[in-house]
Amino acid sequence: MSSTIREADLGTKVTPLPARAAANTPVPLDHHIARNPGLKLDLGFLESVRSVNRSALERRVASLTKRRSIKADNQAAWLLRAIACMDLTTLNSNDTEERVRRLCAKAINPLRRDIMEGLGIAGETIRPAAVCVYHPFVATAVDAVRGTGINVAAVSTAFPHGLAPLSTRLQEIEASVKDGADEIDVVIPRGLVFGAKWRELYNEIVSMRAACGDAHLKVILGTGDLATLRNVMLASMVAMMAGADFIKTSTGKESINATLPVGLAMVRAIRAYFEETGYLIGFKPAGGISTAKVSLDWLVLMKEELGRPWLEPDLFRFGASSLLTDIERQLEHHLTGHYSANHRHAMA
Amino acid sequence: MNILERYHAMEYGPAPEARNEADAWLAARDFGKALFIGGDWKAAGGGKTFDTSEPSSGKLLAKVSDANAADIDAAVAAATKALPKWSASTGYQRAKVLYAIGRAMQRHQRLFAVLETIDNGKPIRESRDIDVPLAIRHFIHHAGWAQALDRDFPGHKGVGVVGQIIPWNFPLLMLAWKIAPALAAGCTVVLKPAEFTPLTAILFAEICERAGVPKGVVNIVQGGPEAGAAIVNHPGIQKIAFTGSSEVGKIIRKATAGSGKKLSLELGGKSAFIVFEDADLDSAVEGLVDGIWFNQGQVCCAGSRLLVQEGIADALIAKVKVRMSRLRVGSPLDKNTDIGPLVDLTQIDRVKGLIAEGARQGAVCWQPDATLPSSGYYHLPTLATGVSPANILAQEEVFGPVLATMTFRNTEEAIELANNTRYGLAASVWSENVNLALHVAPQLKAGVVWVNGTNMFDAACGFGGYRESGFGREGGREGMFEYLAAKLPLGPVIKPATSSAQPVEQADGVAIDRTAKLFIGGKQVRPDGNYSIAVATAKGKLAGEVGLGNRKDIRDAVSAARACKSWPEATAYNRSQVLYYLAENLSGRASEFAARLTELTGSNAKAARDEVELSIERLFLYAGLADKFEGRVHQPPARAVTLALHEPVGVVGIVAPDNQPLLGFISLVAPALAMGNTVIAVPSERYPLLATDLYQVIEYSDVPAGAINIITGRSAELAGVLAKHDDVDGLWLFTDAETCAKAEADSIGNLKRVWSGNGRSLDWASEEATGDALLRRAIEVKNVWVPYGD
Predict the structure, then answer these.
(1) Is A10 on the interface with B (CB under 8 A)?
(2) Are A56 and B639 an interchain contact pair (Cβ–Cβ within 8 Å)?
(3) Which CATH number fits the domain that encloses residue A53?
């Protein structure tokens, strides 16, 4: 740097993000995450984040995904990262205990041994961070993954619509926690957002957080229903103020799944919350993320907008069911140079 | 690094774009025969070559033929030879050729992108995703214009052979902006790329060979200043289109003065990027990345001046710094590179010098902590805060990755700061309040305004500047006019005024003495010099005396015209009614004006009466058109509307002709007024009493003070003063050829828009000397991009 360049005095109260070193420089991972205690509902702060320009966000994600390219060994490493940040999910009305046990088995052994060896990670443990199931299957899943370090996440609170009485929804959370769920994915009643009933939404989430106890709270916004990115931003912020550990896009049941513009609005909400409070909130896109290529786009989004800490499972998860198989195919292709087929990889 | 280490590091790693195809193309070319003239590849007549090197390494890429004046002669000869057939071809035939070029470019777009990146240093993501697709879009869009010519531009024809000189920052895209409309209009082309970046133009010429472009229609001559000067000065060229620095633009304006060449200049800028407190700040930060760090800031319309509202300044600057620290500086062929090298070592020196001077003048300059590649012309993105408007970084175009930041307190001050520049190319306005954004956009002196966006371009939307950023538009309907000409009905050759003997003898009849003063700021005022000149009747007797206006009178008139805000800000309907009222009041005194015409010009009573009636008709015409010569809404391929607004040029000087002295005067003044310009009119030197007689008509017609100012005197002298006045935006001249040429040359102070008859007047009674032909000269087209979606 030439001698004429001097550091400007920032003179600002905005806390810089962690890992704000130059993009070309590797970042040491020394963060540890304090759990978000939440904030008093601050409508003034909420008001300050309502400017979300959809066209500009769409342009950003369009160039973001075109301006980053991950090739060869790096791509393999990033796809392994996608596995490690995965909530392997089954949320179907025809789920059974046996189906859930199969899912857990897949989570424990996500990759074929020869692929692990080929990638030079045979001795390593790289597997989904959690399995995600409906409440009735929590106990089954807890049993199946015991001792593996894999968490069990339950979608409680009248998933996917959240339209049961609050007391019922809270009971469902408590029941899931009692059955051993480590993480609770709750849905918000979308109507509260349309009605701008922020206090009611806040209070509901606060009580859900209380019902979770030590289990981590992931708040699903149902973004496909929320219509505008401004609603997504505001709902994200209320959820974080109410004590969400993660904010999550979709149930997978809305007509529009997780999209990158929605993801961008949510990660910017996370950044704004961090700048205001210093707390790091996790992000979980879910629904429709089924290809290795798309998973890389999401990882790029996290790295560019939030930085390296958000590429760890304590701050980032994919909610996905079929993504793992596509990643397996890509990893096999990386090793063999042959394009792979689904049936060559064990199903969940 | 093994995969596990990479898994922990989560770095992007290199993602190089393959260059083997481009290298093979380079190896297979004989760059010693790089002049594409008349469909053949020729060596430079002087046998000279120049070097083009790779900015990322400094390595030599090729030694390219360096055209001399004789080569330009040959190229112009080829273009001239090809012109009759090409211009006579049907729109459909030309459309097929343009379409074929666009499609052929599409088939080779990766080669274009890689070559562009190698030669210019711009990141491959930009050449691949922006430059090349936009260039292709330009050809395909203009195929449509070729076919729509008769429908959309009746009475217009291509101007002929055009000379085009393009810069190095967007080599292929600027080539497309130049060649596509020219070919659509039926012109033939001699184009000179920049010396730093000759390669993609050579590939383009090969595409032309394959796409069936007739020989000689497109001639591409590589070369330096000698070739450029030869093009500018070539008598066989009817139009010059130039994109580059304001400095060279002014040289070209001066060199072409009096030549009758049509001219369009797209020059430098110091574009404002205005962020209001209700903006989406994170998106505004991305806008800055697209604005000032796009193409290393080597963009004429780069948003290089960040104007941010005080209350959010700290927060925004903090965000900008975080974002800057995430920009990746490196090899332009790497797909993860955001910032590549500057084009040449000279640019590095220039940028560093400006930063050092800016810091010396009090700016605080900050750069992210990143290491630069060891070779190549790299420069870190730089943020300058605490920049005063007087700082060199706020005044001068850096043409590098340097952002100068200032704060403002309120909307009015934002506009004032934004317009506090000699340039006027582009501006960005960031606010979530559409009322505010659309309030500000029309008040910015800029040819392009992006609302909540920046550096958006499209072939359907005009691009070009106000003020010293040049004139003319590229793209869209407005861009087509730059390559078209309508035949105007020529009037008499205007001879220089001679100081013939002054009449002394009173005309017959003793009336009460009348003193014709000057008309400035709505008042009749004595000339500053307090001299008068005599006006002769047709019979050589004394008809009266008018004030001898001088430079100070022009100065006062320009001040009055500039101060008159109510006229440009009035609604078109309001202006329309005032012009109707002028017509009404002139009509009431028609016989008096007819008598004056007869007295001064000797025309017979009927002819005089007809001229007055036609003058009234013209006032009616422009009164009616005041609210009808409207802009358009363009449809770029994006979720956005682009409003092509017609705005007044500003303060316009009009030097009126002697022929048809009342009609000529009104034919020029009325359209200028109708579009909201304020006018300083110099009436016919021989028959000024027709204009001074209008004072009372004007005073009686609710024309706001300063909207029209009339200075009598020596046309040539006053034209010169107007030409050199840097607060006059436009100048229309119907004087002798020498005065016109001199005024064109003198106009470079602020690059005012000059329209001159080059020593010929028009036949003002002709229908062709009315309407759009004049209204188009009375406006600037401002393209306001409004992306939408919620």
Answers:
(1) yes
(2) no
(3) 3.20.20.70
- Angstrom distance (rounded) from CA B691 to CA B672: 16
Element (H, E) at B33: none
Give the separation between CA A262 and CA A229, rounded to whole angstroms: 6
User: Residue B12 and residue A68: Cβ atoms within 8 Å?
Assistant: yes
pLDDT tens per residue, range A194-216: 999 999 999 999 999 999 999 99
- Mutation choice for B interface testing from A52, A55, A266 by most B CBs within 10 A: A55
Host domain of residue B658: 515-778
- Claim to verify: residue B635 and residue B721 sit in the same structural domain: yes
- Count CB neighbours of A62 within 10 A: 13
The SS3 of residue B534 is: strand
Q: What residue type is B381 in one-letter code? A: P
**Same domain flag for B459 and B540:** no
ipTM at complex level: 0.94
Span B491-544, pLDDT tens digits: 999 999 876 667 777 766 667 888 999 999 999 999 999 999 999 999 999 999
> What is the tally of structural domains in chain B?
3
Looking at the structure, tell me whether residues B249 and B161 fall in a common domain. yes
Task: Tell me if B336 and A80 make a contact (CB, 8 A cut-off).
Answer: no
Q: How far apart are the first and last CA of chain A?
A: 54
**Is B284's pLDDT higher than 50?**
yes
Structure-token match 């020596």, residue found = B714
**Residues B185, B241 contacting (CB under 8 angstroms):** no
Q: Are residues B279 and B231 in the same domain?
A: no
Reply yes or no on whether B195 is catalytic.
Answer: no
CATH code for the domain of B571: 3.40.605.10
What torsion do the CA atoms of B139, B141, B147, B152 make, to the nearest 10 degrees? -130
pTM of the model: 0.95
CA distance B101 to chain A (A): 26
Is B617 marked active-site?
no
